[in-house]
Amino acid sequence: MFVEATTSVVNLSPCFALKSGYYKNLSSRVSVKCTKTASDSSLEKSTNSVKGASLNKRVGSLNDVERREILGSNVIDDKSRWKEEKLEPLWDDGYGTQSVKDYLDLAKDFIKPDGGPPRWFCPVVADGNESPLPNSPVLLFLPGNPIKMAMVTTEASPTVNVGKVAENLTMLLPRLSGLCDIIPRSTLLWKLKLLKYGVAYTNSRLHDVKAEVLALASGRDNMFPSSNEAQRLSKTLQNSKICYFTDNGHALLLEDGINLLTILKQSLKYRRTCKHDFVKDYLPPSMSEYKNALAGHMWFQFATSPVMFSTLEDGRIVRGLSGIPDEGPVLLVGYHMLMGLELAPLIIEFLREKNVIVRGLAHPELFTLNSINEFLKFSYVDLMKVFGALPVTPTNLFKLLSTKSFVLLYPGGAREALHRKGEQYKLFWPDKQEFVRMAAKFRATIVPFGTIGEDDIAELVLDNEDMMKIPILNNQIKKANEEAINVRAGMDGEVGNQNLLFPVCVPKVPGRFYYLFGKPIQTKGKENILKDRENAKELYMEIKSEVEKSMTYLIKKREEDPYRGIVNRLVNQPLSTPVHHVPTFEP
């Protein structure tokens, strides 16, 4: 059920929801700030946040919830009632602010069995904000055992400070003693008896549940067979997906590195209507998500030490992204490096320097990988979704440009990214120039760019042609390609030759990645492009030529870079030097 978030807010951990002022108003709802609880060296670092709430504005009743569910997006889009707000990239989601001790102090008064109404929460609340983001979906919460919810798995951390953990557990004992008042013995016995009958009835009705279900299963749950139960549910429920966390324990949402909002975004379950919209329902990455991604790709950033250049209006090439417009819509069009290796550094640098999220248009097949698997684990593709990736379709491009977004487009697509031996830095662009006309319709700025460096970090040893010569593998490749989505269907030549097979590469001693963004091309005032295909084709060929010139320039200039190889960078630069501060050639 997805309805609008109200202005009554209590910010709590993503696994627990409290009712704000429910003694006075039984129809109030709550929202939950995404916070973390750390299984670091002590329980002091476990971080759940609870804030007070206000009831200055009217909150919806359960009847309103049902009415909004029926009306759907018509209610959500009612601008007379809801002010449209947007989160900026790297917004503060409050992930990591308070301790479990604070959490228990503020939570115990709210979890008493008072016979109140169902509790609601919203997973999107920016730090310092007393209310959730308008139009955010509101989720139903079912209370759980506070003792289990306060537990943190420490087995996964071999460097746990045992003395510190013991000290913090001792500090929590006075608060845990209050649980006997919250759940008296007679109440507990009654609940256990009720649970027995409830489980039997529930299991007999699970097959009738048609609602979409996302279940989270832990691989190291020592209290409950989460994995087996998840598999049972996936076979019984009609429309369910299971997210599997291999290295986490029973108190999944209280463990370090687990963020409920991130999980919802990765699984495409965060939406405002019955169907997920990649543009309207997208939330930019928060600061905690950015830091986690940066930490996870730190080794790659260090190994490739990416260098970004851009071109100013006067034609001068400078280091950095100052030549890129600050306001959208902007369409970045360039070369797709082997296996898309250039993506992560590009996205990270735009966030770091310009605080802009670049929405990358990716092959639709990437978004079907998890949909065919009911028991999935999160991967690099899911991280791409959090940082703006969406399927490449004319509709999505239209929506992005209409919302003045920064869009990343690779006309060469999968054929370019999965190229064969000897085809590095060769463009495989189709003859169609529709993206040019689309950009002109919204007066977008087109920025052609080239990127090089794949030949400095990997050697391609087995490409598609080599694998097709292997008898057993041959049939499997053909079958996979026939079943895959073909975005170039009907096109002739190599452009239409889609083979979604990752080549086999051997790593090299890392070199360096180089990016050159050409002079921005303004489409404002060029309405003739919309009417005349020949004019559009002329601009299309100009963009393609600029991409090729950029790569030719970088291939030549990198020979002048004394820090091209990782060995020279290690010898001459401290390890703590940020990658964007490592010297390079003079443009």
Could you explain how this protein is built, in words?
By secondary structure, this protein is of the alpha/beta class. Among the domains are: 1-180, no CATH class; 297-365 and 375-455 and 509-581, Glycerol-3-phosphate (1)-acyltransferase. Helices cover 33% and strands 11% of the residues. The strands form four sheets. Strands 5, 6, 7, 8, 10, 11, 12, 15 and 16 form a nine-stranded mixed β-sheet that branches. Strands 3-4-9 form a three-stranded parallel β-sheet, covered by helices on one side. β3 (213-218), α8 (226-236) and β4 form a beta-alpha-beta unit. It is globular and about 80 Å long. The chain starts with 61 loop residues before the first helix and ends in a 15-residue tail after the last helix. The model is unreliable at 1-84 and 144-160 (pLDDT under 50).
Secondary structure blueprint with pairings:
Blueprint: H1 62-71, H2 73-76, H3 100-107, E1 119-121, E2 139-141, H4 146-149, H5 162-176, H6 179-182, H7 185-205, E3 213-218, H8 226-236, E4 240-245, H9 260-266, H10 287-296, H11 298-304, E5 307-311, E6 317-319, E7 330-334, H12 343-354, E8 358-362, E9 375-376, H13 380-386, E10 390-391, H14 394-402, E11 406-409, H15 413-417, H16 434-441, E12 445-452, E13 458-462, H17 464-468, H18 471-483, E14 504-507, E15 514-517, E16 521-522, H19 528-531, H20 533-557, H21 566-572
Parallel strand pairs: 3-4, 4-9, 5-15, 7-11, 7-12, 8-10, 8-11
Antiparallel strand pairs: 1-2, 5-6, 12-15, 12-16, 13-14
